[in-house]
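From the shared-data thread, chain only:
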Amino acid sequence: FEPQFLLYLGKALVLGQQLPLAVEVRDTLARRVQPNNVKDRAFLMVLSGELALARGRADSAVGLLRAAYAHEETPYVAESLARALVAVGDFAGATRLYEAFGPNADDWYGMEAQQFGTRAFYAAARVYERLSDTTAALRSYERFLAPLAAADSDLVSVRDARERVLRLRLAKGALAPANK
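Structure, as tokens:
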């Protein structure tokens, strides 16, 4: 299999909490990496970083993912690094990454990073909430929801973002509660 495909499969398995299978994929990827191919090595670092993050070794994950991102500066890798930065408490670094790749749909639309690009502003908003930056959180939730105005409320992230916007606006006094 091609190393990039193995990365996509491995990351999906990690995110689906199927770590034993993800380890097998990482081991296969390690055997397929061409030593002189920088991208192959970056793909291995990303999957190793994802596994480290899933196992609670966020510092190791950040190191691996920063090294990978230096060679493979894509939204797919940026999303992994952003989650790892949140795990180590580098919220500013995480929001910078989310805010950087979120608006650049041409970089991820129709690609494997699409699901992460689509949710980048949602992820940034969640981090801004942790920072108690209500204004930035609202702005990011609204940027996430804008293209999804007619989206089905069965989408968990859309429903959650709408509820969070309402709660944040009420807390800011920007929206008066309905009289009962």
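Residues 41 and 106 are 25 Å apart (CA to CA).
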